[in-house]
Structures are given as C-alpha cells and as structure tokens.
Design goal:
It is a single chain. This protein is α+β, with helices and mostly antiparallel strands. The protein has one domain. The chain is about 20% helix and about 30% strand. The chain is built from 1 helix and 5 strands, in the order βββββα. A hairpin with a 5-residue loop joins β1 and β2. The protein is globular and about 55 Å long.
C-alpha cells in the first residue's frame, strides 16, 4: 500500500484507498463527499470527522517516519547558481 493512501468505505461497504495528499475538501451533503484536487469526487460512508482523523493520522505518521511535515519539500528545491557578475 502507498504511504499516502488512506482507506475509506464506499456506500456499499467496499474499501477504497484515496491519496490523502490530494484531498481538497471533505463535506457532509448529507453523505460524506471527498473531493480531490483533480476534481474527482468520492461519496463514502465514513463521517467527515472519521475522514479528517485518518488524514491527521497519515500526516502524523509522515512526521514520525521522516521528521518532516507533509509539504515540507524545501530540501528538494534546486539551489540557485551563484551570480557571477
């Protein structure tokens, strides 16, 4: 399983893995709708609170395992060459 995935449940009970880093919004309408930054939407049985708890657990796991907060990718940024005027 990909580390970025959280497991949720479709309305029929089937498990679905969703990339937690792509979640843009979670809303109750009245079923829980998870919207990704890609525009994909998933209707799930899990409550908004449960989805948020899984996202928080995922982010805490990343911090524990890497020592970096999700989104803290400054170490991957290319260094600017020195200006040689």
């Amino acid at each position: 399983m990909n580390l970025a995935m959280i497991i949720l449940h479709r309305l029929n009970g089937q498990e679905i893995s969703i990339n937690a880093e792509l979640i843009e919004a979670v809303e109750a309408a009245p079923d829980t709708v998870v919207t990704l930054v890609t525009g994909n939407r998933y209707v799930v049985k899990d409550s908004v609170e449960d989805v948020i708890a899984r996202i928080v657990e995922f982010k805490q796991k990343i911090v524990r395992e890497t020592g970096r907060a999700p989104g803290d990718w400054q170490h991957l940024k290319k260094e600017e060459p020195e200006n040689r005027d």
